[in-house]
Structures are given as structure tokens and as C-alpha cells.
Amino acid sequence: MPIVIGVKFDRNPKTYDFDPEEETYEVGDLVIVDTQKGNELGSVVKANAEVAELAPGKELKKVLRKANARDLDQYRRSKETEPRALEIAKEKASKLGLSLKFISSEVSFDCKRVVLYFTSEDRVDFRELVRELASALHARIELRQLYERDDVKLRGALGMCGRECCCRSHLRDFEKVTVKMAKVQGLSLNPTKISGICGKLMCCLKYENEYYAEVFKQMPKVNGKVMTPDGLAVVESNDMLKKIVTCKVFVDDTFVIKKFPLDRITILKPTNPPQGGGKKDQDKKKRDRREDRKQDGVDPTDTGDADLDDADELPDDMSGNDSDDGDSGDDE
Predict the structure, then answer these.
(1) Cα separations (Å) of 51 from 63, 97, 254?
(2) Rounded to whole angstroms, how far apart are CA atoms 105 and 103?
């Protein structure tokens, strides 16, 4: 079985596996590794360990060596170059009249590549800017545009919970989050309550969504009727964490608010279900009537009993039939 170590890089929460090549490394060691972008300095966060197998087509990059004093000095110089590169970029962009807002810069370990992160509301032709920056910094220049989530992930911020934003501290990738998750969890749909610093839906809405989605199916609907140990009641609210149902229990001509565990109530089905069904039911009825006409020897295209067919062609709000509205959820 292959042996790997886990390495993290500055400003990146992901852990990458590398081939230690018969060397032994401990957690906390600084190492120089070979990456697609060239040599980089990283910190060991997972010591030598065997893995069952590698992903198909995955080839491990190698650890070149433990970082020595010369490597650390080179790394320090690269970090000292970053603020200077950012200032030069701002100055050049202003001189060329470009509407770019530079956020951060990243200089490679060997100082041969400079990545500049920016935001812009307009499309910008920055070819001339790249040429001038390459001449001034004597390095390969890459400009990368950031969007709301990327900006917060790069610079970091505190969420409304008081902790560092998840995308900065531990999230590897952004996963899809929808408004339906907030609905299922019974949260306020006020955008200021469920949005993060980036203005998008909070990533943490997805963390416990699987539990809430499962419990949501078990809980009675608000304003629905249930049978409790104290008699008939109407649901006021649900506590999905504790699986407690708050109900109005009817007593003579009044009611009392009481709470019951979910396993002590019985959900009652509607006594008068909607009639007519949706479009599929209406189409089936039409086909059945046509078959009946054929059996009776009547031309199925005859409009003689248009009274019946016309009723089916009426809009739902006029014919009294309820349409089958699927709730697809609101995406972010």
C-alpha cells in the first residue's frame, strides 16, 4: 500500500497528499514539495501513513526535502514581495484608468510567479497592465477575478456566530445551499438573517439539513389537525430538535395551549380531500370518456356533449380543480 503525508499551504484550508519517498516526517515539519505551480513550502499536518489505494489516474507529487535555513529565507523574501506587488499593481491600474480593485497578492516560493486577486464590476482589458507589471516585478503575472464568496474566503471575516467564516477556516469547496433548507429548518426567510458576510446564503444551513429534512417529514403541518391524549387539537408550532409539537387543545368552547412529544400524537388526514386532481387526472378522464363514446358508437370528435369537455378546459381557478403544484425550492 502506498505511503503518503498530508501537507497544507499558506492561506489554503485543503490538505494535499504527497509521496515522502522513504523519508519520515512528523506533524509540524516544514517541507519543500513539487507542485503543478513549481516548488512550494508547506507544513506537514499528517505524518507518514498508509492509504488503501489512490484515486484512479491520480499521481502523487513528491516531497523534495525538509525546509532548511536557505529555504526559509527564500520563503520570507517571497512574503515580503507580496505587499510591494500589490501596491505596484494598484498604482499601474490607476495610471491606466482601469476600474480594478485589487484585494490581495500571492508570490510563489521562487518569486517567479505573482498572482493578483481583484474585483471589478465591468469587463476590463488588462493586457497592457500585465505587460507593465511583468516588467516592473520581473515575474510571470496572473490576474484572477474574485466574486463575493471568494473574496471572503481569501481575506477572512467573522460570521454572525462570532467565529471565523467556515469558507476561511475549514470548508474545502462551496456546496449548493438553497432557501428550501431554511424553510425546512423553520428559520426566518429574512435575507439578513440567513445570509453570510458575502451576501449569499450561509454555508452552515447545509450542515444539519439532512436531519431536519428527515424530521420535517415526520412532523405535522402547522394548522393541521392532530389527535392528542387530551383530545382533538390544532398544531401551533413544531420543535424539530426536541420533536415537540405545540397544539391548541379544544376544551368545550375554548382551547388550551399544550406541548406533546411527537410519538404521543396522531396526525389526522383531511376529511374533505380536494376533488378533481391535477392535469394528469383530467387527461385520464378525457381518455376514458372518448373510450366510452367509441363503445357507444359515437364519434369521439363529436362536440355534441361540449358541456362536459368545456368544463375540463376551464382554467383551474374557474373549474374548481386544484392543480398539482410541486415545490422545487428556491435556489440561492
Answers:
(1) 17, 53, 67
(2) 7
| Whole-structure pTM value | 0.53
- From residue 161, how far is each of 157, 193, 202 by CA, in Å? 11, 11, 11
CATH code for residues 78-146: 3.30.300.20
Contact assessment for residue 254 and residue 233, using Cβ atoms and an 8 Å cutoff = no
Tens-place pLDDT, residues 215-254: 888 888 888 888 888 888 889 888 888 889 999 888 877 8
Q: Are 184 and 153 in contact (CB under 8 A)?
A: no
Separation in Å, CA 176 to CA 44, 198, 201, 204? 31, 15, 9, 11
Please tell me whether residue 35 adopts helix, strand or coil conformation: strand
177 grid coordinates: 445551499
Residues 246 and 91: their CA atoms lie apart, in Å, by 63
Report yes or no: 319 and 276 within 8 Å, Cβ to Cβ. Answer: yes
Say if strands 113-119 and 140-145 run parallel, antiparallel, or are unpaired.
parallel
> Taking a C-beta distance cutoff of 8 angstroms, is the pair 204, 214 a contact?
no
Give the three-state DSSP class for 253. Answer: coil
- Rounded Cα gap, residues 225 and 239, in angstroms: 17
Does pLDDT of 330 surpass 70? Answer: no
Return the amino acid letter for 177: V
- What CATH code would you report for 219-297? 2.30.30.30
The domain segmentation of the chain, as residue ranges, is 3-67, 78-146, 166-210, 219-297
